[in-house]
Structure formats: C-alpha cells, structure tokens
Amino acid sequence: MHFEKPSKEKPCTQPTVKKLLEEKRKRETSSVPSPCSHSSLVPPDYKHLSAAEAANCPVDMDTSQSTHLTFRTELDQNKLRDAQRLLDGMDFSRITEQDEDGDTILHIYTAKGLRECAFVAAQRLKSLGALDEKEHKGKTALLVAVTANLPDIVHDLLSLRADINTCDVYGQTALHLAAHYGYSLVLQALLSHMHPPNLEARNFDGMTPLHCAALSHCLTMKAIYTGAQSDLSLSSRATEMLACVQLLLSHGASLLSQEIKSNNTVLHLAVKEGNIDLVRFLLKIPPDNMKVFVDLKQFVNMKAHGHTALHMAAGLHGNPYQKEMLQLLLCRGADPSIRSLENDQAAHLLQSGPVGEQLKALLKRRNTSSRRRILSLQDKE
Question: Which end of the chain, N or C, is surrounded by fewer C-beta atoms within 10 Å?
Fold first, then answer.
C-alpha cells in the first residue's frame, strides 16, 4: 500500500529569535566591546515561532525598554485575553514540551518580547512545576528576559515566583547578567523583589555581580579614554553601568568582596584598568549612604595577591590619571609603607625619570606625615 508523504511546512521567512536578539544587543551596546570571555552572555539560539503563531500573537512592535523610562508593571488586558485564547487553543504538549535545545514555548515568547503570551505560558508552566525549566545553556525564562533587557517580563516572572537565584551553565545569575550588560531597570526590578537575590553569589570566574558591573564599566571607559570607539552612546552606556554599581551598593553589595581568582576588589579592578571615573566614585562614597558600613581606610589598603590599590596605581606608567589616583588613594588613607609579597613599597614600583621622582616625593611626604601622626598619638597616650 502506498502512503503519501506529508507535505513539509514551508520555512518561515521571518528572522529567527536569535537574529532578533543579536540585532537588539548590537543596537544597545553601540559597538561597546564585550567585557566577558564567556559565550554564555551571547543571546541563546532560540527558534522562531511558526507562521501561524506569529500571526496570532499580540505583538508589541517596540519591545525594547528604554533604560531612562519607568517600565510599565500592568499587563495589557486586551492582549492578555488574546494570549489566553491562543494558548487555550494550543495542544497541551506544545506548551509543555522542550525542543532539542531545551527551549519551552515560554523561552521563545520571552525571547520575542511577547509579554502577555509569556505571562500566560508562565502561569501554565508554574502550575506544572516547570516555570524554571532550563534550556541547553542553563537559562531559565527569567535569565532570557534579563539578557533581552525586558524589565516588564522580569517583573512578571518574579511575581509568579520564578527562581531569582538560579544560574546558567557558567554560574551567571540574573544579577550577574544585568550587571554585566548595564541594564539598570532590569537590575532595579530584581533588587526590588520581595525575596531579594543573593548579592554575593559567585559565577564560575569567582566574581560577584558587583565585580561584573565594575569590569563592564572599566572596559567601556577604556574605549572612551582611548578613542577606539567614537559612538556617542558610549557615554550613556557608561552612565548606566555606573548606575548599576550604585544600585548594587545601595542594596547591600559589599565593597570588600574579592574575586576568587585574583583577590581583586572593585577598587583594585578600577585602578588596574586606569578607570579614574570609577575610582573617584568608589572613593567618594559616603558610608552613611550605603546599606553596609565600610571602613574606607581598610578598604583602600586591602591586598590582592600582596598588592594594594596604591601599588597598582604606582605601576600605571604613562597613564594620564596616575597622579590623581595616587592622590585620591592617599587622601582616603592609603598607606605608602605597606609592602607587597616581593617586599616592594608603592614608591618602588614608580617609573623612572622626572615624573617618577615627583610621584615618589608625593608618597614620601605622605609617609612622613603618617609617621608623625602616629608618634603624636603615642606621645598623648
């Protein structure tokens, strides 16, 4: 008996979700070089919807969220009803199944920015205990929403109790991803959740979200300092990334946290990368405005593999901000007499020549002044 082969569905001509996310990321980063070495921070390979689904979904044409506007927390009730009808008419297995890459329909709706469809799908999956299903790179729908810079969908998923501390295959939590990309509204949505995320969670590089935010800001500022990138949006991107640093600190992230691989604090990272803007910010933070009190003198003199921030600043030969960094650190209590594991003081790491001699005199004056204060206190006792 002859059986006629079923006709294959014609391929959809619309761009894939992966392509849409890549284009979205390209617009948002405005040619800022990626500060992360992991491919986990590239939007995942989500498939497009079928032509029928795409035609019936209530699509919001402008799904991108401006980081300078407050995102709306209310769902569009008309679109919500349309989404409910769409999923009611869908085969149950289509809602629950995962494809060869582990994507559920919730991952796809989220990546497409189809808020109301994602919300209804999330409700269905939550009832089945599958709200936090992971795709092949370990991303839940929440992590996809963060990567796509969709604070409204992040808000919706958190309201349905999506796991805020889950991580992908590289150990990146939602906070790590938001901090890395400089998505301040997404970060705000995460930090304002009734069950706050773990601010000190470590990714597999041993970094906290605060480290990720600082590193991203450093590399963006490096592009500005060197003039390697002339895009005018770099400045606004740097502002957003600094806002992420501030948000994390105001919610209790610790300035004293050290990344595991190199023991760097955010101050070490800023000085090492020659990021004067971040150094100024970190050394002018009033402790009273922070959730966690920090002894700034202790913070400034912390060591990373034997080197203080002052040692690192002394090694910035030729950097136009070297002198200012040294002065800022000294004003905040940096101790020039501290020695590294190689028994070097900061003065020993300065460049040779007239500039190095001037900076050495600066360190020597502060060292002498510190010794005089110590002797004066001893005499009073």
Answer: N
